[in-house]
Amino acid sequence: MDVEAINERYTSLSETSCCLSCGGAINHANAQTSEICVDLGSGRGNDVIRLAEEVGETGYVYGIDISEGMIAKAKSNLAKFEVENAEIIQAELEKLPLEDNKVNLIISNCTINHASDKAAVWNEVYRILKPGGRFVVSDIYATSPIAEEYRNDPVAVAECWAGAVTRAEYLTILEAAGFRDIKIFEESDPYPKGYAEVASWTISGQK
Ligand SMILES: C[S@@+](CC[C@H](N)C(=O)[O-])C[C@H]1O[C@@H](n2cnc3c(N)ncnc32)[C@H](O)[C@@H]1O
Question: Which fold has domain 3-13+20-206?
Fold first, then answer.
């Protein structure tokens, strides 16, 4: 994948208060005391801090992100709020640096659409979840396939639309990864973004 365009866009956004989310995954996550959690595309670290509070000192939270600016901002936010049961790791979603069957809960907000190999990401999500573990993810899908000319355009992908797959493709990838009990908590009406029409949703599933 072209990490450069993602890094450039999100490093420049890391010091702004611009809204980066496309749903409220964390509001449906219901994190419990002592759980081990992961936030994929943790941005400035806001959801990591909230999860760390929810799981308490016997739980732990990993924030994963690729952009240098976001990593620096999230680390400084964790230090500012004296969060000790969380850390931010620089890594790509397709290669999560966590062991198999380790995690109770994975959340993500408006990030997985950026990944060029979504099947690899969802296989990683499945791999690191404990049996019975769950994901709660907010993301976007495209209402029809993104035109070939934009699909591999790193800047358009970084802008949160050109990397989107269709709704049907999304569900197929989840099922192929092995998830069951897939639920949809929120789903928007379609709206235009870039040169496409997309919709956002918050979904969950279980290993
Ligand atoms: C739209 S922002 C969302 C940030 C945060 N989840 C929030 O809701 O505020 C997407 C984040 O995902 C990160 N990201 C995008 N593609 C990634 C990838 N392939 N691997 C890891 N992080 C990625 C970006 O650096 C950025 O911080």
Answer: Rossmann fold (3.40.50)
Q: From ligand 1's centre to the CA of 172, what distance in Å?
A: 23
In which band, very low, low, confident or very high, does the pLDDT at 158 lie, cut at 50, 70 and 90?
confident
Residue (of 68, 117, 129, 127) closest to 93 by Cα position? 117
pLDDT tens-place string over residues 50-85: 999 999 999 999 999 999 999 999 999 999 999 999
Whether 96 lines ligand 1, by a CB cut-off of 6 Å, is no
- Kindly state the percentage of the chain with pLDDT values over 70: 98
**Whether pTM exceeds 0.90:** yes
- Site to probe by mutation for ligand 1, drawn from 13, 28, 47, 114 as the one with most ligand atoms within 8 Å of Cβ, is 114
Backbone angles phi, psi at 171, to 5 degrees: -65, -35
Q: Kind of pairing, strands 60-65 and 36-40?
A: parallel
How many angstroms separate the alpha carbon of residue 178 from the centre of ligand 1?
A: 24
> Distance, CA 109 to ligand 1 centroid (Å)?
8
**Which of the pair, 144 or 11, is modelled with greater confidence?**
144
Interval between CA 118 and ligand 1 midpoint (Å): 14
Cβ-based neighbours of 106, under 8 Å, separated by 6 or more: 37, 38, 39, 40, 125, 128, 129, 133, 134, 135, 136, 137
